Fold these 4 entries.
Entry 1:
Amino acid sequence: MSAAYASRFEAVFLCNHPKGPKMSFAAASRYMGKSVSFIKKCVKRYEDVKNVDDLPERGKRCSTSEKDDKAILRIFEKNPGCSLRKAKLLLAKKGVEVSLNTIRCRLRDADYGWRCTKLKPFFSEKHVEKRVLWARANIDRDFSNIIFTDESSFWAWGTRRHAWSPRAVAIVQRTVKHPVKVLVWGCFCKQGFGALYLFTDDLNAQKMIQIYQRCLLKSARRWFGSDNSLWVLQEDNDPKHRSRACTEWKRENGIRTLDWPSQSPDANPIENVWAAMKVKLREKRVYNVKQLTRHIRQIWRSLPEIMAENLAESMPKRCQAIIDNDGDWTTY
């Protein structure tokens, strides 16, 4: 029972309840320390509806009209990154004088919130056109013989950007200025995950050929045997992959490559593998390169084969998503 409800019920009991003392309004006012009008209002409500329950409050009257509310939302629909102060100035030019708190309330009423944005690559018209053409050409393709490859960077001292905590408590996460970093090349196909290559120096064409020889061919032979014509290599359009040395090496070894659209990390399923590995790595405290490489290898070996199968089978859906979005980015 709330304090306000108890006060209303006490006023009714003192003045009007059959088992009460039958006080006058003035006597009940003096006894409770409340105004006479409060006592009268409580008694009248009880006589009308036979209870003193909390009634829905009207609240503060809205200071903006429906037209003003649409003008506020229109600003943030056109420019989601607009600040409240800038929005206030833009509204003032239109003759709408509102406070920052009013703008904030109107946005909250429309279910707007200040949220983290997703970073996606910039697409030119040429990129969009090539992505759609590629998706339509490969949507019916059999991806079971495709070896997906990519490189990624892993840092020690990874931290989560979000954490649960009471509102009054600030969560502090310790970081270091220049954490150790390891570069990783990996591959997988529908049959499972292949060899992993870790290095800390720069990647060039010669090192890329070394990775092909030590890791790519080793994994391909395990899945498809010694005949390189039975599988197709997928890699992005990094200049090292398209260099003259790497292109000549792949031609000499009879390795076919899958045509790949530029600026399309969402179409490469191995990006999901890197994301899952980085989430697991954040749970471990790493202090040097040796520990970092050991944890990366452990996480890679723990990846289930069903994950590789599901990612390979998701390729037709990725192609369809690109087509449905007219070449724009997808949720993958």
Entry 2:
Amino acid sequence: MEKFELHILGCGSALPTTRHFATSQVVNLRDKLFMIDCGEGAQMQLRKSRLKFSRLNHIFISHLHGDHCFGLMGLISTFGLLGRTAELHIHSPKGLEELFSPLLAFFCKNMSYQVVFHEFDTKEPVLIYEDRSMTVTTIPLQHRIPCCGFLFAEKPRPNHIIREMIDFYQVPVYELNRIKNGADFVTREGEVIANDRLTRPSEPVRKYAYCSDTIYRKEIARQIAGVDLLFHEATFAQTDLARAKETFHTTASQAARIALDAGVKQLVIGHFSARYENEQVLLEEAATVFPNTILAKENLCINL
């Protein structure tokens, strides 16, 4: 099965602590790297995770709060120092290019590469990236400013050829692509050989959903139904529900409720408030609702 990994670079919230870096993650799909949010220290964590800078070409910013984008300027500068030539594409809600243009003009006057900004609307799901193997779609969230999560989805792959059957029916090479994509085969004698006799299904597609800062929104469950892995912020415990509502964040039990309603396979919670010296209380709270829950931690790698 092709590589599909999630690397946690940071899982803390806005207030810095000695336990956690600010929010940042990397999705590694077939050795293409996609960064999600870029809090302070993201490039240091990228090094620690032994991920190659040269394979990172797209960065997705969920919203324009500092703990999700303050590491971006340093990363852009480092790419320049490394002599990067490939374009760097940054996808974000409206406003990031306006904020960064004067910084780039001042700090990165003679960069060897181009930074390309792509702004998206946060009110409805939007397809913001697509290549041969995957798509990235926004997940509308509700925070104090415009904010979106991201749904990473593999594209269906062609069926696998059963070589013995292909040889038995003497299928010409030029027919193989059609057969991989579901076509039957007609022999010279006019006999129709059903596709399921010539192929076996490919592996099921995998999906990862990232839900950043948001108040509890049960509507999220519909869009992320059945995903293999869900990251959902769990800034607070249920005992701090009033604070969660005030700051437009989610509690651990609410995050678990989303996972349960969506029928996801696994939940990882993060974006921990600095008030909790031991996040075990958040894990226990979430696991009561959705048992297959784990805590995010720096340099954790999860295989989908």
Entry 3:
Amino acid sequence: MKKREKLEIIRKHYPNALTTIDFINKIIDFIEEKLDLEPAEIMFADSICSDDVNSIQYPVRANEFLGPFKMGGLDGFPFTGLTGMQAFASHVPDDGAVFIYYGPHIGISKEGTIGEINRFGQHKPSSCCGAAHGALHKLLDNAIKPGHITEIDYQMNTIEQILYNQKDRILKADIPLFEATEIIYESIDRRIQQLIEATKYNCKYIILVGAVLINSDSDIGSFSSTKRFDVIDLKKGTRQDLLSTLN
């Protein structure tokens, strides 16, 4: 299947989606041309789901950065919290930058089915993101108790509470899993902003990319739909919205 055919499937739901390879190439080009830095001067962190498919479909060129530091747990929520962000910030080269990529993920099969993919070596589709899918089913079954977070399943319970707090919005949606993913993105974005505000960085820039990471079947690959692309100049104290440069 040609790239344009793959994109046609994904862009029915995410019109600005790029392949993850094209996405990371654009980011590296920007860093080199606009910030005059090399990938080896960038400390990279991601806050994406710990699902194995995200490691399998990770763009190889991302390995040119330092890292990655892993901030995310189930569906990408930054469960390493402030300690994780501060640890990551202390690892960055003094004259370099930090690059943070964050957001939930969702599956779209080659048939265009949202919420599932065919994984490597399997002949039947499975859910993606499984945590969001499971939390959504509990929500629809009225099986989530408000405020219920346990030690043994803390991450999943947190995702459940995020959806529970937006139950009406999800129930009104044409595609509940799509809407649930949007809600999880918004929650991740808010938390990342909080963590950045509470962290000191001894470098030149913070490169901040919020997105929905889209997985597809093993022979299709992965895609990224960017929702935020900000560059914070720590020396000048400025913040630029550069989202339009990726479209």
Entry 4:
Amino acid sequence: MGFKNRKRWHCLPGQPLTDIDKQVMFWEEKGKLVPTRELIKTPKQVEGIRKSGIINTGVLDEVEKHICAGMTTLEIDRICYNYCIEHGATPACLNYEGFPKSVCTSINEVVCHGIPKEEDVLKEGDIINVDFTTILDGYYADASRMFIIGKTTPEKEQLVRVAKECLEIGAEAAKPYSFVGDIGHAISKHAEKYHYGVVRDLCGHGVGLAFHEEPEVMHFGHRGTGMLLVPGMVFTIEPMINMGTWKVFIDADDELGWEVITGDELPSAQWEHTFLMTEHGVEVLTR
């Protein structure tokens, strides 16, 4: 990619160099991609994102209380919208680039961006990802969970479990002054043990002051590649793990062009948290 001459970090005028300055400048001189200072959140911003994350977690907890066979995904949308509004926040997905609902509900072979509908009725054995993003006082928090409806097959149970393990392993790989590629490498290595496909067309992302910020957090890759991870950065890790191929396509019946389907129409699973990078590793800001 050739970042050798790409000077992105600036030190504060009149201020002595901090340990963060020294670390970032070291890697920048080695030609690595480093964040801009604007991606490093202030304590006030972190606190705002953390409060948004509390509401976001509450939304998914509320879904967990009610989700069951016979429920429509439109009912899930209403639960999410009502909880969010009642707690003084706003659903980030609603009307985002034409997305018509407050939450993404992705069932079985739908990888992500499933649109809630009256005709989508949950059945025994389904697995569903519920993905919600909250805006509170201008601060964003983003998370998703998998839910198993009743009793499902051992194959689907394993997929859901391994997808969660991929999130946890990716988070463990995210160390201060490591690289985004370290996260993807750890995730893909674990998924490959089960011959699962890791979706390459979609990724995690920076978040906090906007819905999507730098860096792009790919869930496959090589160690030492991608952007340097610096304390104060906030980002999501959200691996999409397919039972079969990693390839995907957009549902032809989706006139809005949102719903992403697995290439072989086998099931997919995804878990997501918003993380704060600290001097000691990541802190989870959502659940």
